Amino acid sequence: MRVLFTLIAALILSSPAMAGDLTISVRDSAGRPVQDAVVTVHPAAGVPRGPIRFSWPLRMAQQDIQFQPYVLVVPVGGTVSFPNLDRVRHQVYSFSRGNRFELELYGRDETRTRTFSAVGVAAIGCNIHDQMMAYIKVVDTPWAAKTPAGGDVVLRGIPAGAATLRVWHPRLAGRGNEVSRPLTIAVAAGRTTVSGDFSARAAVR
Following CA atoms 137, 168, 185, 144 in sequence, which dihedral angle do they give, to the nearest 10 degrees? Predict the structure, then answer.
């Protein structure tokens, strides 16, 4: 299916601060908000040197025979903890290119960790419970966020100038479940809307 990607509004003002905030609204082809879409912005001038840190915990728990959260955004080089909060044992794995790993069977109140060194997507599964599925999106930019139920996120303090906006979701039709768009960041707050076909189901791979 053809992916629809529409830039509704652009940032057009500037000031000596040389940074701007951007609100991204992710919608499906029917105009409904999309949850768990990962939005990233890569300025043409590059990203700051040094480790990337986010405000949310790098943690993917196993609880009620499912992974929580369903989608986790992780900086490249970040270490994720996988606590087992269930009464049953789990064996967590990913066969994704660059982020392949397996955590041997472990039980309740035990935790394993994994460092993610390759930018991309790790589709996470459990060898014991086939219905368990989640995704870790490994990013190399500090301007990254995951959409909540309302479909809107705000990325703050992006350097002014040319940039590339990318939106990824496990059900987004398109190569790599991702679409991208060039845009211009300016100091005044702006808003852009991304719409696409989110009907395709992705499998753990």
Answer: -20
Supply 192's token pair.
């852009």
Contact between 168 and 174 (Cβ < 8 Å): no
Distance CA 158, CA 41 (A): 8
Q: Each residue's pLDDT tens digit in the chain (205 positions)?
A: 233 433 333 333 333 346 888 999 999 888 899 999 999 999 999 999 999 999 999 999 999 999 999 999 999 999 999 999 999 999 999 999 999 999 999 999 999 999 999 999 999 999 999 999 999 999 999 999 999 999 999 999 999 889 999 999 999 988 899 999 998 887 655 667 666 666 644 333 3
Is residue 10 within 8 Å of residue 183, measured between CB atoms?
yes
Query: The pTM is what?
Result: 0.86
What pairing do the DSSP bridges indicate for beta strands 19-28 and 190-196? parallel
Q: Minimal CA–CA distance to 163: which of 32, 58, 60, 19?
A: 19
Give counts: helices (H), strands (E), the chain: 0, 16
